[in-house]
Amino acid sequence: MTVPLFHLAIPVDDLEAGRAFYGELLGCPQGREDPGHWIDFDLRGHQLVLHKDSSGGKGAGVRMRNAVDGDAVPVPHFGLVLGWDEWHALADRLRGAGTDFVIEPHIRFEGKPGEQATMFFFDPAGNALEFKAFKDIGQLFAV
Fold this sequence. Notes:
Blueprint (H helix, E strand, L loop, with lengths): L6 E6 L2 H11 L4 E5 L3 E6 L2 E7 L11 E5 L2 E5 L2 E5 L1 H13 L4 E8 L7 E7 L5 E6 L10
Parallel strand pairs: 1-4, 7-10
Antiparallel strand pairs: 2-3, 3-4, 5-6, 8-9, 9-10
């Protein structure tokens, strides 16, 4: 079976800041680009495209926040489900880089179905990201 991959295009106000954030900080290999217009990144096999937004906007923006296990989760957001150790290594790298977390790295739904490590932060353009991990990936859709 072929695993389907997603394609996500997001607005950014500064392509070079996006290149540094996604390429250097998050370690996503860069693909094609049209200088001054867009840049492709390999987000773990998925295609993430940063499109230059010249309208003066700041990313996709947060339209709302939703209460989830005591946190005010920004919506919209996107991210990845990582392995447990990889998530902790990324959290440490982001802390070391001085990342301003919207929701600090922590364990959500502790002792309940769907227990997970989660963290939220913004890219330089204001797009909200969530990276999470499960000790037991079978809990991803647990009810």
